Amino acid sequence: MSIETSKKKKGIQMPHTYIILFLIVLVVCLLTYVIPAGQFERQEDASGRMLIVPGTYTQVESSPVSPLEIPMAFVRTLGSSSVNEIIFFIFIIGGAFELIMQTGMITAFCAKLGKMFAGKEKLLIPIFITVFAVGGFTMGMSVEVLVFVPIGIAVAKAVGYDTITGTAMIAMGSIVGFTAGIYNPFNVGVAQSIAGVTPMFSGAWYRWIILVAFIVVTSLYIIHYAEKVKKNPSKNLMGNEDSNLEDVDVSAIEVTGRHKLILLAVVIALAVLIYGVAYLGWFITEMATLFLVLGVVCGILAGFSGNKICDLYVQGMANITFGALIVGVAGTINTVMVDGMIIDTIINALANAIVALPSSVKIIGMFLVQTIINLPINSGTGQAAATMPIMAPVGDLVGLTRQSTVLAFQLGDGLTNAIFPTSSTMLGFLAASKIPYSVWLKYVIKLVILLSLVSMAFLALAVVIGY
């Protein structure tokens, strides 16, 4: 079942994300006629970042932006070097990921895990969560998990669990990995780039700790439900609807020598990525080159022809076009605010609203704001492009580090992808599993709340330790 079909059956036509963003740009244009123009003085710090000088805000002559200028603002944003570099990077990641998926390596190893842990079903859940968390925090795996949901469900049912458990251990693994974002180019990478945090992916040690906490909480939650259903099938939230899925024969899927070589190539590439970022000062250009080469190498190891490798790369880039271009669409919001000279006025107002609060409360406020924004702007890259130009300087003014501000963004952006109806990730895996949205929401809402509380605790601690 496609995502589009699922939406039609529900009778709800959500506005396209681009339409939502265009309406936001339009509103911002109109606000340039209402909000007073103003600006801060800025000075360069030791790392080359331009930082606001506190206490220097002054009002200036109004410079409203006409709605007729929106198309030009969009093209200018797409044409800026900082934006098109990020967009190109996202395209490369999309192409490489498509090639890796098409080799069948991930599917084969998931099936192998299911066979290995038959009779040790409790261990299957944290293992699957961890495997897909790795995909989430390295290659930004999100909506792609729908491909693997049938495998997860088949494995879960083979050991006495249900469809919800099989779906959750795949989908929630990806979501918590994406949210922790240790080396995720789509949330942490883009946000740190916009905020001027260098080197890219710095502060990973703290995100590793957050990831472990997320995996533990998520595993215990899913295991609790899974064991309850196994002992008493009447506790299955789907009831009789759980028999509607077609079974997948996991036993027929084997790990080949090619699959092992492809996995080795991916592991080596990720190790090189971590070393390059941590010790060689790698940035977008070097990382994009690594993923470009990785995709080709995986295609060769899979025995694909040159034409097929090229076709799959193009297909992968096409699949990621929505997420790539959304950087430019969302970035137009910032372009209009800068042109209308209201961005500093908004920054000043936000800073004044929270400056009197304790530091730990300030950062939680940022987290809650990002969580709310994740409803209309569900793309991690889009939300980073739309909010980080504002939140980074707000953090400066209220005494938060840029690293902590990025952390508040990524945690606020990711967790609600499991519950918000605008989430393409959630719509995708629910379509693949045939779990009704109301049933899924009833199942997962408590987990999202628990993970949000864990996030707030880590954010408060980040302020205390000066992260």
TrEMBL record:
Entry keywords, A to Z: Cell membrane, Membrane, Transmembrane, Transmembrane helix
The lineage's top-level taxon is: Bacteria
Extract one GO cellular component term from the record. plasma membrane
Q: How does it sit in the membrane?
A: Multi-pass membrane protein
Q: Which InterPro entries match?
A: C4_dicarb_anaerob_car-like, DASS-Related_Transporters
Q: Where in the cell is it found?
A: Cell membrane
Task: Give start-end ranges for the coiled-coil region(s).
Answer: none
Q: What is its main location?
A: membrane
Official protein name in the record: C4-dicarboxylate ABC transporter permease
